[in-house]
Amino acid sequence: GAAAAFGVGALTSNDGGRTVTVVQTSAGAPATTTATPAQTSTPGDTTTRSGSHSVQQIVAADSPGVVAVQTGTDTNGSLGTGFLIDTQGHIVTNAHVVPAGTTSITVGFKDGTQESATLVGRDETEDVAVLKIANIPSSARVVPMGTVRTLQVGDPLIAIGNPLGYTQTVTTGIVSALKRVISSPNDSNISNVIQTDAPITHGNSGGPLIDSNGRVVGINSQIATDSGSNVGIGFAVPIDIVKPVVASIISGGTAQHAWIGIQGATVTPDVAKANGLGSQKGVMVVKVDSRGPAKTAGLKGATSGTGTNDTPKGGDVIVAVNGQTTNDMGDVSLNVASQAVGATVHVTVLRNGKKLSIDVPLANRPADVK
User: From the centroid of its chain, how far is CA 79?
Assistant: First the structure.
């Protein structure tokens, strides 16, 4: 979790004291553009629920799987939150809750049981860590994962965590905004972030943000404030980009991030006018990374106007990925990010007025791509 000051563009960690940078547009307003993160069908999907449930029902079902994460280092320690994602004992939290150099990890369940945990792996790019315990308490429950795709601004949300050490604290709020961008512990952009007014503060980091169906839609990671205290603006990393990272850590010990290898620009009215696109929505491919799968697959970048403030012209216009309509770069990012490395995405583009379908096998994102 974290605290931030929009006026000065800094976010301060809820738990570890780290400082990161908020992606801003102007006067402290968080940006709504996006980059490239990831999902797969993995842990936590074994439990399904349909329909809307009361807060009491959701808390009763999910809170037995939410844990307090206490970590220790050679010099100090921190407290955060995590949640059980499978029957093998894997627990997900934030990477900044389990900083490099952590020497001990203890997780505490709702029933009072405490278990020693081992670190399976951590990923600062999406601020995710995976822990594992050998013994799961009989009262514990796997917390099911959902998706950010179905969320709309105004939808109700629930946060469960351990703010300021007060364990199993439940707060409620709504989706305040979608497609925010925040900065990760290693200064990468985390895209498609959920903004919520559900009160979260120091100790909530790594805990679940839950929808009205009782499914996790995000991991509470940062808060925004100009005073150093919680002011009700929270940010949660979308579960869609967490799932594949978690799967890769569990299967191989290291995180992977699906990457298509393009820079894109949302088709604004100016871009549409310059390219004769009429009312067409989508994302114009501005640049294609020479190392990336998009280049190999034959996607075409803009032929002019590729500068920072220029209007791009002549590039492929992405109108769908895997059949999902793309209205902006956030949609492209999420559709790529919700796949595992090695998966093939079907990209529908407009090129010279004709619609083409191009298959792009996704690669692992290079370390220098933020």
Answer: 21
**Could you tell me if 175 and 153 are in contact, meaning their C-beta atoms sit under 8 angstroms apart?**
yes
In this prediction, the residues of the chain whose per-residue pLDDT falls under 50 are 1-50
Side chain identity at residue 57, one-letter code: Q
Distance, CA of 63 to CA of 200 (rounded, Å)? 16
pLDDT value at residue 2: 36
* 74 a catalytic residue: no
Supply the pTM of this predicted model: 0.84
* Contact between 365 and 126 (Cβ < 8 Å): no
* CB-based contact 214:56 (threshold 8 Å): no
Q: Which two tokens stand for residue 125?
A: 């790019």
Catalytic hit among 78, 176, 188, 205: 205
What pLDDT sits at residue 242? 97
Please give the pLDDT value at position 27: 27
What is the per-residue pLDDT for 308? 84
Tokens of 362: 């996704």
> Which of these, 25, 16, 40, 5, lies nearest to 243 by C-alpha position?
40
Alpha helices by DSSP H, the chain: 55-62, 239-252, 269-274, 293-297, 329-337
The tokens describing 195, both together, are 């903004």
Q: State how far the Cα of 67 lies from the Cα of 74, in Å rounded to an integer.
A: 23
Known active-site residue 310: no
CB atoms within 10 A of CB 168: 17
Q: Which residues pair with 10 in a beta bridge?
A: 5, 21
CA dist., res. 236 & res. 140, Å (int): 24
Q: Quote the pLDDT of residue 173.
A: 95
Residue 96 annotated as catalytic = yes
Ramachandran angles phi, psi of 84, nearest 5°: -75, 130
Q: Of 90, 96, 202, 257, which one is the catalytic site residue? A: 96
Q: What is the pLDDT of residues 309-323, one digit of tens each?
A: 899 999 999 999 999
